[in-house]
Each structure stands twice: as structure tokens, then as C-alpha cells.
Amino acid sequence: MRDMDERPQIICSGDAYAVFCENWDDIKIGIVEHLKVMLLNYCNISS
Q1: Pick from 4, 5, 25, 42: most CB atoms within 10 A?
Q2: Which among 42, 41, 39 is positioned nearest to 31, based on CA atoms?
Q3: Domain boundaries along the sequence of the chain
């Protein structure tokens, strides 16, 4: 088990995204990016 000191420090969404990109493979990142675009499009259409 990792110590709390080993966890990446996430201060803003950019930090979280960087950690996400470091730990996931390209296929999973592509799927999440596609879902993000679909969600943003849905939100723009709904409003």
C-alpha cells in the first residue's frame, strides 16, 4: 500500500487530468474524451 506522501498532489483540474493521462492507456483516454465531447454537446443543445 502506498503512503499518503506518494499520492500526486491535485490542486486543479489540470493536475487531475495530467495524473489521469499518466495512468491510463490511449484507448481508455480516447473513450473518455469522446464521452466528454458528447456530454458537452448534449449540455449545449439542452440549454
Answers
A1: 42
A2: 39
A3: 7-46
The phi and psi torsions of 46 (rounded to 5 degrees) equal -70, -25
Write down the H helix ranges in the chain: 13-23, 26-46
Residue with cell 448534449: 42
d(CA 19, CA 13): 10
Measured in whole angstroms, how far is the alpha carbon of residue 26 from the centre of its chain?
12
Question: pLDDT by residue (tens digit) across 19-32?
Answer: 888 888 888 888 88
Whether residue 5 has pLDDT greater than 70: no
CA 36, CA 30: separation in Å to the nearest integer?
10
